[in-house]
Amino acid sequence: MDQPTLTAGTTRYAGARIARVEDARLLTGHGTFVDDVVRPGMLHACFVRSPMARARIVGVDPAAALGLPGVVAVFVAADLNPDVHESWYTSMGAAMPDPPKPPLAEGEVRFVGDPVALVVAVDRYVAEDAVDLVALDLDPLPPVVDYRTARESEHLVHEAYPGNVAGEIGGMPAEMLAPAFDSAAHVTSATIHQQAYLPVPMETRGLVAEWEAAGGELTVWASTQSPHEVRMFGARLLGLPEHRVRVIARDTGGGFGQKVLPMREDMCVLLAARKVPGALKWIEDRRENLLTAGQSRHEHATVRVALDEDGALVAAEIDHVQDVGAYPMPWPVHAGAAVGVFFPGAYRVPKARFSYTGLYSNTVGRTAYRGPWQFESVAREVVLDIAARQAGIDPIELRRRNLLRHGELPYTNASGMAYSDVTPLETFEHALGLLDLDGFRRQQADARATGRLLGLGTSSYIEPTATGMGFYGTEGATIRIEPSGAVNVYVAGGSCGNSLETTVVQLVADALGCDIADVNTIQGDTAVTPFGAGTGGSRSGPMLAGAVAETAAGLRDRIVAIAAHKLEAAPDDIELADSRASVRGTPAAGLSLADIAAAAYFEPASLPDGVPPGLEASGRYHARAMSVWANATHVCTCEVDPETGLVTLLRYIVSEDCGPMINPAVVEGQIAGGSVQGIGGALYEHLAYDAEGNPLSSTLMDYLLPTIAEVPVIEYGHVETPAPNPGGYKGVGEGGAIGAPPAVVNAVADALAPLGVTVTQLPLSPAAILALIAEAGGGAAS
Amino acid sequence: MAEVPIEVHVNGTARPATVEPRLTLADFLRERCHLTGTHLGCEHGVCGACTVLLDGEAVRSCLVFAVQADGAEVTTIEGIAPDGELSPVQAAFRDHHGLQCGFCTPGFVLSATAFLRDHHQPSDDEIRTGLSGNLCRCTGYQGILVAVRAAAGTAAG
Amino acid sequence: MKPAPFEYHAPTTPAEAVDLLSGLGDGAKVLAGGQSLVPMLALRLAVFEHLVDVRRVEGIRGIERQNGTVRIGAGTTQAAIERSPEVAAAVPLLARATPLIGHFQIRNRGTLGGSLAHADPAAEYPAVALALDAELEILSAQGTRRVRAGDFFTGLWTTAVADDELLTAVTFPVWAGRGGFAVDEVARRHGDFALAGACVAVGLDGEGRVDRCGIGLFGLGPVPLRAPAAESAAWGLAAGDVDPVELGRAATADLAEVPDDLHAPADYRRRVGAVTVARAWRRAVEEAQGG
After folding, report:
1. Cβ separation B140–A711 shorter than 8 A
2. What is the predicted pLDDT for the residue at B1?
3. Mapping DSSP to helix (H, G, I), strand (E, B) and coil, where does residue A392 land?
4. CB pairs below 8 Å between A and C: how many?
5. What residues pair up with A55 in beta bridges, in sequence order?
6. Partners for C (CB, 8 Å, 3+ pairs)?
7. Which residues does residue C72 pair with via DSSP β-bridges, in sequence order?
8. Which of A347, A379, A596, C182 keeps 20 to 30 A from C110, CA to CA?
9. From B103, B129, B145, residue closest to A33, measured CB to CB
10. Does A488 reach chain C within 8 Å, measured CB to CB?
11. Average pLDDT over residues B1-12
């Protein structure tokens, strides 16, 4: 066989809705989130932040703050910034262009919330008092607030970037596609706008950094999706050997991309840790999280699609412009380019082109958020519905004519992406089957007759998961069967709610034929676990499956060999189940894994020739494919109240093909969470600034997250097309946030279409909807 | 500024302390009582992660000062069931994948416990209304709704 | 987000409370439920040197049915009002507004008096007090004075209660005869502050003509508002002859300072404000006609 298989025999746990091993501690309040970490003599940090969007820093006077009892230190840029050795991300590489990344603002403040000084005090209460006493002397400068006009502005966010251009990239020039558009039967053009919104994990950012000078060791407790990146970045930042930095991440309260990379505040705390007489804790508060943890999704594009007379797509192009804020992390151009590359989606599009421009603005920097390139689906799915209506075709029909079928694969899209192992059309039909399309259309028509507006929207996408590229392309595991026969599995971790512990335990129990109660996992401690890139990019399921397969195979062979030797049977006749090895046909006679482990550790002379003592192994899986492709279709029905513009979601269906599922409950949970974040983006969430760059939604009273009352029951359809990697599992974490916004927008657009409304802008607040109705002439009387 | 002597009864145990008036009940529980199961998600009364029972009523502990809880009974997530056991609400959350990262979970468990005590056989709409004051970012609320329905069934008997 | 330091006072009698307020001056603030005040303190949008906690003050909690009125202590929680059969029977408009206030955890602490004294322009209780011509009792070291709801809300977050005074009770009239009461509001999410809202109390005479009418608007100005033009247009008409849509327009036609913010521009609020008047009117009339 060319790659290790995942099971010892009968699969008991993979595919089942196993209760989570994380739940016992989390349900009873015994999780360890970073703010739960208490160290002797621990001190607390709080940042002084700019109240202006752009200003010259004339002076920072800490005198009054230092005079407050309980204040230990106040650091400014001159204290911390020069100590930076290197500040590049391992995942990006040292050679990648890196936007400026000063730990504390130097020279200029560039957005409201820009950290200017770091106060250290005995507790957070005193630290906040001290922050109020630090005197900031700022000389205001005209801010560049609107990225859409940033290129033409005479003001620069960063002097080194003329035209405020952070980066540009493109496919073929527009002229090359002109003939296809010029000769097409139908051409639809639209400019689609998405607002700034962001991950808002329930746990804000934070870390505790403890420097132990005698041994030159730094221990960091972090709320992170990648403990190893924090370690490597931190070691390079401080000029410390990697093995002198230990990062511990026990429980992280949500990440969604916001906690993939250490950011400027993390840099400040790491730099300050060696200058204060105790562990240094920084816990971000919610206002800081909304103001400074980074924004996403803020972009627009002019898109064009061309159809022939039968409604087949002949060409598609997207000219995409993105707001990257003042301090994007990481360099945004590659994720930006992904929008253009994936714009053709899972459709048969012979010709496509794109361009991408990232522009700086004096607002918070762009950071990753669940499916960072998802704008390709927003733009495409919204314009396809518009194109369908303009061409007189039902939007559903348009999808049927153009979605790729499984039988057409492998298919190389117009940007060179080679798709395989997906079922776009089949999944689409599966979702519609769950809906009862004809039934809905009748319901919609009946409702329209009484003045009620119901709508149906779909979105279909294909996403790259579990990339094999570079930093993300491998995953390691160490499996130790302890002398007692218990099994411990060590993986890098970075779980932030996505059930990595349960996933690993299920997989290893199957791989070694154990009872799941005998398997335990240790994650999130760089001193103990093998290197792993962490969680993100919908990689954890497939990569952990690969790591387990790679590592468990040899161990299984050794268990079988020892059992065969002791039971005087042929290895092929040995079965592993329920933590026992027995001879096929006589399950009652056999050995427990404890017996086998005891022999391996304490009676090495009794082992068969060629079998090494002990029962521990490490392995590392290398994902060969650039991507493991997954696809899904979201279907949403809604009612729009024409008097108030309020949207009620009626049904929400997701059919996805993530291959076989390790744990269906976990898969559905990921889909649900991402979808509700996407619903939030379509209807409620908006990180807004006024014309002077002052934030307007800096608390949860103004940044509106969906509550349980706003979301319908989500119905799931599962299509299972295996990918060619161990277990056939594909990633599934990001998809909900990709597919949901366009499905909701299209549902609202379908409800409003009879009024002559075309929707091209998110979010669809009630006021925005009433304005659209009024513009289309449907406004006046109720 | 004068510190104030208080005695709060937390999960059945008296906790005498001397506190600054501005110390929130949430911080008192986390820092003085070392009960870190009550989480701070926003500190301005919106997200509900800090929900505890104060004299039996579900409240946002970030909006109560410890001095205001002098003489009161507080129940936190650590006290909702005896050590090593799960309450019906907790068991339902486990059984129906009602949590992922777990940060909002204590607040939901406390709110759901109080809600179900006061509402027997609630409709889905009533559950949604009742829990609309607790935010979750991981689950999309799907597992939570199923869990609370299930716990209501258990409680109603 | 931790509040700035303050001194804490917990008086046990109303006299003690107003003595404290009088002595401490304008650096002191009454702390009731804290559901509006404490977030402001946490965000350091407001700083007070002294908080006077009135939760332990005797005599300002409770719901008392009197002759033709219901008197409710200012310290009564919204949850207690929500549970009260007396309020449900005798002041239905107040009962029906209550579940719209935030979430049950907020109502467990928030008080009637706190809501009225804080006077958020988008809050329900101030509009209900206005629509029903409630009477508010204000205590100072000089004694108790009574202020009509119509004179109570004087400006944005400003009421007739002075810095050295304490709101102690609110008396609501009980509407006899055929009455209907409804509250309607438009909010982004369940429990959010209303973008616009209306509470309507309507009374019908024996022939089904409107003989009593109170329309309170919230979210449509810096203070809660009555709609006198709409009310007088409805008086004397048969209930069925009042066009709810026209009524809504009349109620919102002359609004001068409609709020404009991230959640909704002024013209949106004005427009849906009219819709909430119409919807509340329809429901109130249906109840009055049925009962």
Report:
1. yes
2. 64
3. coil
4. 67
5. A109, A140
6. A, B
7. C63, C170
8. C182
9. B103
10. no
11. 93
- Residue numbers in C near B20 (CB within 8 A): 5
Using one digit for the tens of pLDDT, what is the confidence trace for B124-133?
Answer: 999 999 999 9
Pick B64's closest partner by Cβ from C1, C34, C190.
C34
| Domain C7-53 bears CATH identifier 3.40.50.1820 | no
pLDDT in tens, B22-78: 999 999 999 999 999 999 999 999 999 999 999 999 999 999 999 999 999 999 999
Pick the CATH number of B88-153 from 1.10.10.10, 2.170.130.30, 1.10.150.120, 1.20.1440.230: 1.10.150.120
Question: What CA dihedral angle connects B114, B118, B121 and B127, to 10 degrees?
Answer: -50
pLDDT confidence tier of residue A533, bands split at 50, 70 and 90: very high
> Are the beta carbons of A364 and A298 closer than 8 angstroms?
no
CATH of C63-173, one of 3.30.465.10, 3.40.50.1000, 3.30.300.20, 3.40.50.1980: 3.30.465.10
Contacts of A510 (CB under 8 A, 6+ apart): A6, A7, A8, A11, A12, A13, A14
CA quadruple A250, A534, A204, A102: dihedral positive or negative? positive
Indicate whether this complex's ipTM tops 0.90: yes
* CATH 3.30.390.50 fits domain C178-290: yes
Task: Enumerate the residues of chain A whose CB falls inside 8 A of the CB of residue C122.
Answer: none
Nearest-CB residue to B68 (from C53, C108, C189): C53
Whether domain B4-79 has CATH 3.30.420.40: the reply is no
Q: Which pTM does this prediction carry?
A: 0.97
Which residue in A22, A28, A705 is closest to B135 by CB distance?
Answer: A705
For chain C, give every domain's residue range: 7-53, 63-173, 178-290
Q: Please report residues of B whose CB lies closer than 8 A to that of C5.
A: 1, 20-22
In chain B, what are the domain boundaries?
A: 4-79, 88-153
pLDDT tens-place string over residues A24-66: 999 999 999 999 999 999 999 999 999 999 999 999 999 999 9
* Residue contact C188–A684, C-beta within 8 A: yes
Position A589 confidence tier, pLDDT thresholds 50, 70, 90: confident
Q: What stretches of A409-463 show up as alpha helix (H) in DSSP? A: 424-435, 437-449
Quickly count: other Cβ atoms within 10 Å of residue A418's Cβ: 13
